[in-house]
Amino acid sequence: MSLSFILHTDGSVFINGQRLDPKSWHTAPAAQGAKAGGRDVSAQEALAALSRTVPLRHLVVGVIGPREASVAESSAAEAVGAALGALGLTVICGGRSGVMEAVSKGVSAAGGLAIGILPGSTPDEANRFVGIALPTGLGEARNMIIAKSARVLIAVGGSYGTLTEVAYGLHFGKAVIGLEGAPDVEGVQRANSVDAAIALALAALAAVAVAAGRTDPCESSAT
Predict the structure, then answer these.
(1) How many helices and strands, by DSSP H and E, does the chain display?
(2) How far is CA 105 from CA 4, 83, 100, 101, in A?
(3) Which range is the signal sequence, renumbered to this chain (predicted)?
(4) Lower CB count within 10 Å: N or C terminus of the chain?
């Protein structure tokens, strides 16, 4: 889906000509002339502008990856977390070591919120950068919770556990972005850099809003 973004002088954002409601995260037809005075921006510029006026914590991005991560995977995960945290988005992850710790560190440093969905029954197993630790007692089955809770998933590196999260995400119809050797599965959008991964993730979030606008019963009944 090709998406265009316009940032209005009053701080409102339009996606493909429709006004974005940042609280309910759906688009709706704009009043005639409402886009006057706007300028074309990227998805990241649009969300950055929104984050300065509206809390975006309800937009949850899942970051998944191995608990034994390489230096490159950890570095990429931390940068991903910093970028998402700076936009005020919530990051959900497995809450433990490796990629999970690195992304939590990046989010925390940027002032964002990282939620850790833990496999065990105690919050003590969470890494120190997790803002909210949620013990499930479900073991690796907690991977499904991460995939279901996130609007978009970014996979950094790969492992069998990461593969299950990728599969769950695709099964649930979520956009999955792959970075730094993430599982090569049909449907995963490949990114060759952190910036590219963030751009794909934000475009996927915008696509969620557009899709929600098409199916909003209030909008349908009003036309």
Answers:
(1) 7, 12
(2) 32, 12, 9, 6
(3) none
(4) C
Give the C-alpha separation, 22 to 43, whole Å.
13
- Return the pLDDT at 160: 94
Which of 211, 191, 193, 202 minimizes the C-alpha distance to 42?
202
**Domain spanning 60-191 has what CATH number?**
3.40.50.450
Determine the Cα–Cα distance for residues 146 and 33; give it in Å rounded to an integer.
41
Copy the structure tokens of residue 120: 């065990």
CA gap 116, 91 in Å, rounded: 9
Residue-wise pLDDT tens digits, 81-109: 999 999 999 999 999 999 999 999 999 99
> Which portions of the chain are predicted below pLDDT 50?
219-223
Predicted TM-score of the model (pTM): 0.92
- Tokens 């009003």 map to which residue? 222
Closest by CA to 167, choosing from 38, 158, 52, is 158
Task: Tell me the DSSP string of 43-55.
Answer: HHHHHHHHHTTS-
Structural domain spans, the chain: 5-54+208-222, 60-191
By C-alpha distance, which of 60, 152, 153, 155 is closest to 114? 60
